[in-house]
Amino acid sequence: MNQVDYLRISLIDRCNFRCQYCMPEGVELDYILKQQLLSDEELLTLVQEVFIPLGFSRFRLTGGEPLLRPRVVDLVSAIASFPQTQDLSMTTNGFLLASMAQDLYDAGLRRINISLDSLDPDTFDQIIGNRGRSRWQQVWDGIQVAYEVGFDPLKLNVVVIPGVNDSEVLDLAALTINRQWHVRFIEFMPIGNLNLFGDRGWVSSADLRQSIRERWGLTESQVRGAGPADVFKIPGAKGTLGFISQMSECFCDRCNRMRLSADGWLRPCLLNETGQLDLKTALRSGTSTAQLQEQVRRLLGIKPEINFKARDSGIKGAYTRTMSQIGG
Fold first, then answer.
1. What is the largest distance, in Å, between two alpha-carbon atoms of the chain?
2. What's the burial of 265, exposed, middle or buried (CB within 10 Å: 0-12/13-18/19+)?
3. What is the DSSP letter of 264?
4. What three-state secondary structure class fits 115?
5. Residue 193 pLDDT > 60, yes or no?
6. Average pLDDT over the chain, rounded to whole?
């Protein structure tokens, strides 16, 4: 396996959207109370005194919706200021981004992923569970502002849902032709919502690539990211197309990440719940950061076994948390 040097940090489990694949309709979510969240100080202590000494140098801020976290710009600035931080990025739904993009960039954030599952406002609102005034335009504006501010790469995440937005794949791919944007097609995962779209399953990346290849042609890109995406390019396009194929093409051997939830649970593998550590409770009960560091070191040692041996349980089994509660 690759060296594990990438930590996805959930800042909050709440979100101003309720996307079906992340927060299943009809599921009652027990949101984390403020006092149960890792405080700014606790989070920065774990990053600086536990994870960085173990070789973590890449950090992605997620949620829920990370821009709902109070003082998020200050957190960005603090993590960006650590000399060992080689890469700091964020995944957001983009709804609040237009007014915050410049401050985030000035604080040291350079890379951003924005969820955009549809170019059709009605389909978009259906996916995000919105029943009021359409939110598509505000997200689109956020994307434009982020690009103008200078975020590079600017990536757009698309979860492809059969019968909902799979007919838009070519239109979304076309965004990369004249813009230096990078579209990432993600296979739908049944995390915390096993029955959602169960009659339709998911669309494989291979099928998506074939559709794009038939329309424009498709070549492998020389651009490689730190994540699991297989990167391609439409000939002559300014941007790239990535395919994250966690359902059809196992990439456990390339995994370089762990996930820290907003309430301090460290999760070694997205696809199952084996081996999690409750770092917040340990920290608050007086466990030293040196002891926590040793616990995480041991977990890193067995991560390959967790990834491969428990992978199928994640695809087929039940979860105690939805994707929004895990941090994606």
1. 60
2. buried
3. S
4. strand
5. no
6. 87
Strand ranges inside 30-152, DSSP E: 58-62, 87-92, 111-115
Apex 194 CA angle, 96 and 306, nearest 5: 90
User: Quick check: 139 and 29 in contact, CB under 8 A?
Assistant: no
Phi/psi of residue 140, each to 5°?
Answer: -60, -40
Cβ-contact 267, 62 below 8 angstroms:
no
Predicted TM-score of the model (pTM): 0.90
Predicted pLDDT of residue 324: 47
Each residue of 279-321: pLDDT tens digit? 999 999 999 999 999 999 999 999 988 876 655 554 455 555 5
Whole-angstrom distance between the N-terminal and C-terminal Cα of the chain? 21
**d(C-alpha 262, C-alpha 224), whole Å:** 29
Band of pLDDT at residue 167, cut at 50, 70 and 90: very high
Report the distance separating Cα 303 and Cα 54, nearest Å.
14
pLDDT exceeds 90 at position 240: yes
Residue 207 CB neighbours (<10 A): 13
Dist. CA 266–CA 276, nearest whole Å: 5
Question: What is the enclosing helix (H) or strand (E) of 138?
Answer: helix 136-149
